[in-house]
């Protein structure tokens, strides 16, 4: 003989199982397929030097923990790399001419993190900080 109470419980249990399957499938897709890696904490960093100066000397932290220096660089100039949270970054540029302006900018994940501007003969603009 069919027990209505037992039939209701079986249908309810099967509905829960189907709901949980769908929930786990959506979570799996979001975490591992459609979304960026939730365990990736790297930061996209971009250095930029612009201005009216003809040439500049540039010194910067290169993303590998070292220092890079470049001489007599025409503007505009940029450099990109990935960094970890709390990494120290800096960008230093010096005008090599008798006139002109320079603006140095560090971008963190596409947003301005630090910016400085200087104008005049042989001036320096520098920015730094921990991401």
Question: Which key phrases capture this entry?
Answer:
single chain; 131 residues; alpha+beta; Immunoglobulin-like; 2 domains; four-stranded antiparallel sheet; 1 helix; elongated
Description of the structure:
With 131 residues, the protein is of the alpha+beta class. The chain has two domains: 1-40; 43-130, MmpS1-5, C-terminal soluble domain (Immunoglobulin-like, Sandwich), CATH 2.60.40.2880. 24% of the residues lie in helices and 47% in strands. The chain has one helix and eight strands; from the N terminus they run H-E-E-E-E-E-E-E-E. The protein has one helix at residues 4-34, and strands spanning 43-50, 55-61, 67-74, 77-83, 88-95, 101-108, 111-119, 124-130. The strands form two sheets. Strands 4-1-6-7 form a four-stranded antiparallel sheet, with no helix packed on it. Strands 3-2-5-8 form a four-stranded antiparallel sheet, with no helix packed on it. A hairpin with a 2-residue loop joins strand 6 (101-108) and strand 7. The protein is elongated and about 80 Å long.
Stretches where pLDDT is under 50 for at least 5 consecutive residues are none
Strand fraction equals: over 45%
Number of domains: 2
Return Rg in Å: 27 Å
Distance between the termini: 70 Å
Strand order in the largest sheet: 4-1-6-7
Q: What's the total number of strands?
A: 8
- Count of helix runs: 1
Mean pLDDT: 85
- Please name the CATH topology of the largest domain: Immunoglobulin-like
CATH class of the largest domain: Mainly Beta
